[in-house]
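Bumping with the actual sequence this time:
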Amino acid sequence: MDLQLAGKAALITGGGTGIGFGIAQALAAEGVRVVLVGRREHVLRTAVEQLRSTGARGPLALPWDLTSNDAGRLVAAKAVQELGGIDILVNNAGVSETLGIGGPEERWTAAYALRVVAPRQLAESLLPGMRSRKFGRIINIGGTFEVQRVVNSASVMNAARTVYFKSLSHEVARDGVTVNTVGPGVIVSEQIARIFPTHAEREAYCEAHIPVGYFGQPSDLAALVAFLASPVARYITGELIAVDGGSHRFAF
């Protein structure tokens, strides 16, 4: 299927590794020019070189701490300056952090900045261009917010972000802009490697929690993102779609 993405431009936060880099690879393979945003400049540079080695069209690295003041607006302005416009925004950056009762206030503030404030600022900064072109795609990664036994900042912030963007999807639908969220299950990444360092631990978790019986790869999720980012998916908006091997327990 031709996804009709050639010539589009995408901004991907947390784009240097794991899910974000997998999405960058999938979009670049469709002819999209990608801007990778993240805190670690050397990681982004390595990712850009990998993309270039596959023939990707002019990928760019944009090192930035998205928890810093006004980061979303500043990153959006820089990306537009570099590429002239952004058609696809992928809000992927985030960490899963168990805070529990009495969690440090600065960690809550950072989690809110990363998963709610920066994505909102990015979207609202890039929307004027998307609306004027009558095409735009906003895709959030990280949709799970079912109640946990211990308070996790990711679940709380995902809930806030998902509700905001579901509402936003109604406001911009007639302008050719779709807004969706993809909820990943256990996808192989740096963080997952730390949580499940041994093969035995992975096997035990899969047996107990993942009906398909194995951890997902970034490419498993990236394929859906590429589809949602395309003109082909024009009739899908305001949705939360799980890519988790059947293990989802989402509220809605």
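The tokens above came from a reply further down the thread. The first helix runs from residue 18 to 29.
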